[in-house]
Amino acid sequence: MTGVSCKGPGGGMVIQQSLPFKADALEPYISEKTVLIHYGKHHAGYVKKLNGLIKGTAYADLPIEEIIQKTYGNAEEKGIFNNAAQVFNHTFYWNSIKPGGGGEPAGIIAEKIKADFGSFYAFKEAFASAALSQFGSGWAWLVQDGNTLKIIKTSNADTPIAQGLIPLLTIDVWEHAYYLDYQNRRADYVDTYLEHLANWAFAEANLAG
């Protein structure tokens, strides 16, 4: 999967991947302040907590995806799952957005969207609906399920890779992702993501088959 490696050489400590753009590069759509808090506090906090939880355990040398899949649904290891999934989800989110992104894609991903949703407009409507109807904290995702593209939403730290799905693109709808810039206007944040930020090259690179 493109751009989501979270482990150092030889496994061991989970590494927080560097941002794929400068902290102010998403302005005026997402402020530098939001990025610095989101990446430097929230994302970094999950990495630190996860490393503390897996140190000296059988999970320490596993890829982040395996940690997530092995702890999914295990009440005794919920803390490990939540923090591992949030590390993965946030890394995936940073790669799902870029300066100068958004708008209608071209290439293979555009063809797949048209085939599975009928039109890019229909995709946008469905994606926005998922992001806006996610009650409380969570995520909306474009995923690949077999040969079909679908839109799903997940609560809190849940993630498609725990469900055997291939994530292509995500939007973070936890309030810390947008509240400083948009307050309670989640709809404006979602629209901005689709119009100006979505990284379609990343989504296409994640297509399987």
Plain-language structure description:
With 209 residues, this protein is mostly helical. Helix content is 46%, strand content 11%. It has 8 helices and 3 strands, in the order H-H-H-H-H-E-E-E-H-H-H. It has a 3-stranded antiparallel β-sheet. The chain is globular.
- The order of strands across the largest sheet is 2-1-3
Order of helices and strands: HHHHHEEEHHH
Which bin fits the share of residues in helices? 40-55%
Number of strand elements: 3
Largest sheet: 3 strands, antiparallel
Percent of residues in beta strands: 5-15%
Overall 3D form: globular
Which segments are poorly predicted (pLDDT under 50) over 5 or more consecutive residues?
none
Provide key terms for this protein.
209 residues; mainly alpha; 8 helices
Itemize the secondary structure elements and their pairings.
Layout: H1 32-54, H2 64-71, H3 78-96, H4 107-117, H5 120-133, E1 138-145, E2 148-155, E3 166-172, H6 179-182, H7 186-197, H8 200-205
Antiparallel strand pairs: 1-2, 1-3
Nutshell version of this structure?
The protein is mainly α and 209 residues long.
